[in-house]
Write a sequence for this structure.
């Protein structure tokens, strides 16, 4: 595991079925604002952490509990006063989870509770995390990852994600398609709503209903996720900032640190 910031380490594991990153936080005093990841988040909490807020409810990050958050699940995290986060987390891509469950990408699990109490499974996840950070390419690692993900989804998943077919969902789908195609451009709300054939207010309300964030917040997350992929691929931060639609490198740095907890430079060092 490579230290990329004080109290933060990252390990990247090469799997044949997709991408897996491991993070370890040790007393990391950072308040994470409302954000989402394009990958699943599975972790195990250590002692004296704080609270997680998901879907309008607050959950205590209890020692030994499991953190389980699906892609695009909006959440925030606040550490205890004068303390930081101490936990181990795995970030498998949707492809890894689909491989574990034998499903397509359209039928992936959600979790009714972001904080799960299952001591046996938590211990297994923690032991796997420790082993992988010591030897990322250990024989049989891929199988162990898939088995544990399947156990977590089978025991605690609330079913597969079936998109609702209604007007709001359709509007959001059209807007997301436009934003994905024009993410590096200065997209304005009025132009986006006109493209979708609805009013700006209806567009914002639809995003809140379907995704829990505004169109601008979703676009910022999209740009940050693309920036992370480009940085991991060896692109320079200045180039990444321009190609992902940030106003400058400082804008990229601020956004990246808010969402991922570390700066782009620190993230690159972990590669």
């Amino acid at each position: 595991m490579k230290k990329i910031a004080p109290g933060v380490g990252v390990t990247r594991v090469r799997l044949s079925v997709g991408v897996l990153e491991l993070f370890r936080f040790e007393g990391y005093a950072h308040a994470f604002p409302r954000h989402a990841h394009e990958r699943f988040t599975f972790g195990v909490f250590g002692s004296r952490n704080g609270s997680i807020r998901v879907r309008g409810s607050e959950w205590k990050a209890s020692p030994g509990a499991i953190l389980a958050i699906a892609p695009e699940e909006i959440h925030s995290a606040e550490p205890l006063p004068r303390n930081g986060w101490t936990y181990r987390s795995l970030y498998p891509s949707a492809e890894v989870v689909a491989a574990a469950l034998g499903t397509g990408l359209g039928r992936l699990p959600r979790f009714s509770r972001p904080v799960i109490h299952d001591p046996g499974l938590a211990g297994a996840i923690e032991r796997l995390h420790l082993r992988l950070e010591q030897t990322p390419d250990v024989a049989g690692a891929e199988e162990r990852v898939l088995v544990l993900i399947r156990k977590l989804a089978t025991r605690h998943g609330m079913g597969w994600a079936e998109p609702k077919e209604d007007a709001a969902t359709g509007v959001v789908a059209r807007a997301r398609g436009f934003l994905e195609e024009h993410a590096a451009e200065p997209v304005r709300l009025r132009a986006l709503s006109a493209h979708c054939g609805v009013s700006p207010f209806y567009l914002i309300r639809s995003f809140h209903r379907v995704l829990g964030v505004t169109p601008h917040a979703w676009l910022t997350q999209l740009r940050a996720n693309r920036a992370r992929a480009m940085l991991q691929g060896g692109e320079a931060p200045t180039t990444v900032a321009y190609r992902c639609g940030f106003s400058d490198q400082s804008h990229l740095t601020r956004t990246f640190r808010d969402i991922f907890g570390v700066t782009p430079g620190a993230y690159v060092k972990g590669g």
